[in-house]
């Protein structure tokens, strides 16, 4: 009886952190599904229903105490700002439907970025963002600043969609480099640079942009999965060692009994 109790206690102690982690994952999965439902409704122009779902998200967020499970105040800030923006604009009849959907999309991407360990949804926008960037680059090569400005605006509209999520998933130094590149392109001084200098700046920006997406492409195994593998192996080793020790002790006592006889 004591042996079974000992094994049970050891197994519980080793699996308890995983149980807690699993509960946290389930809670964020629920919030992720709510944000996805809000976006689905917004895309179908069911904006009033989308607003109700976004309000429900707030209720569940506090109910599940999700705030305490965020990694930093920066994450809380991003979630709060994008949620408030989506809630405010989703039923704003004066705004174009596309803009309202964009705000809900921005919020949806943030929640996914917090929940996903790898391959977040925002990284799937790489093709469209880089395509807009290459149009900018082509315009500079052709020395067409008017085409550059229109391409740059298109690029900004798409990048701003993923920017809050990038802040969550990407190392600060990488994010800051892209932000600095954008700031330089927005400045009037950029248009006064020589075409060669402009192109040089864009080449640097291309590398920094690509680094953002490359940083999240590594499809590594879920850390919790590795924990389970290690923990299970440890439990098996521990159990076998204990059983082996009990067997050895039993054999030893048995031999002593034979010697007495």
From TrEMBL:
Pfam families: Spore_YpjB. It comes from the Bacteria. InterPro entries: Spore_YpjB. The chain crosses the membrane at residues 225-245. Keywords: Membrane, Signal, Transmembrane, Transmembrane helix. Residues 1-22 form the signal peptide. The keyword Transmembrane applies. This is Sporulation protein YpjB. It comes from Paranoxybacillus vitaminiphilus.
